[in-house]
Design brief:
about 240 residues, mainly beta, Porin, 8-stranded antiparallel barrel, 5-stranded antiparallel β-sheet, 2 helices
Length: about 240
């Protein structure tokens, strides 16, 4: 019985050493770019966007940036488990911004902020002179935030006022899959596909000021439900493991 316990302990040590020699354990800081694909990046003008059209699904998103953290821990051999928390930022495409704002300098346009939190598995399948290739997949929740938009208008004493639109936070089921390379278990370069899940855009618009005598002094608010938006993107990022 003692021999069996010793053999099991020895096997555990060997397995642990093997896993740590190939897997990239630890906390990794990651930064990079994200590039909208599918309906998230489609759209040529404001009227086609889910931001303002109940029947639209286009996001009109431009390329953006991302930053986040990943914690990875060996499970067995070349298989590891990981947990991630990221922030993705995407503004609107330049043509849409120009058409939406026109010549006005008193318009603030919305932007997309997605914050996925995921867990998954990473597998290292090749190790060549300190460079390892890996593939991974994960799933979790995405918290979609759209920054508020506002506009101010004035036309003599007849029309003057402002409009502010705030968007509700949406929580959706999200997943990702990616491949990449690690150098000396320290530097990583990866490319991923993220599907962050679809949800209707909901929020509230508040109008205040004097609009031709219809609204004077007091502000009026109205809730809305616009189109269904599903942020999906290709993400390229560089990471450093501490």
């Amino acid at each position: 019985m003692k021999n069996v316990k010793k053999m099991m302990a020895l096997a555990a040590v060997i397995l642990g050493c093997s896993a740590s020699s190939f897997a990239q354990d630890g906390l990794t800081l990651r930064v990079g770019g994200n590039f909208p694909v599918g309906s998230f990046g489609n759209g040529e003008n404001a009227t086609e966007l889910a931001l303002s059209n109940p029947n639209a699904t286009f996001g009109g998103a431009a390329a953006g940036f991302n930053a986040g953290l990943k914690y990875q821990l060996s499970v067995a051999g070349d298989l590891s488990a990981f947990a991630t928390a990221d922030l993705f930022y995407n503004g609107l495409k330049g043509d849409i911004k120009k058409a939406w704002k026109g010549d006005s300098e008193k318009i603030t346009l919305p932007a997309y902020m997605n914050m996925p939190v995921m867990a998954g598995l990473n597998y290292t399948f090749l190790d060549i002179d300190g460079a390892t290739l890996w593939a991974e997949a994960g799933a979790g929740a995405n918290f979609r935030c759209i920054t508020k938009s506002s506009a101010e208008a004035a036309l003599g004493t007849i029309v003057s006022g402002s409009t502010e639109t705030t968007y509700n936070l949406a929580t959706t089921l999200a997943w990702q899959a990616g491949v990449g390379v690690s150098l000396d278990n320290t530097i990583t370069l990866g490319i991923h596909y993220y599907n962050l899940g679809g949800a209707d855009i909901k929020g509230e618009s508040t109008v205040s000021g004097n609009l031709g005598g219809l609204i004077s002094g007091d502000s009026k608010s109205m809730a809305f439900t616009y189109g269904n938006l599903n942020p999906s993107m290709v993400v390229v990022r560089l990471g450093y493991t501490f």
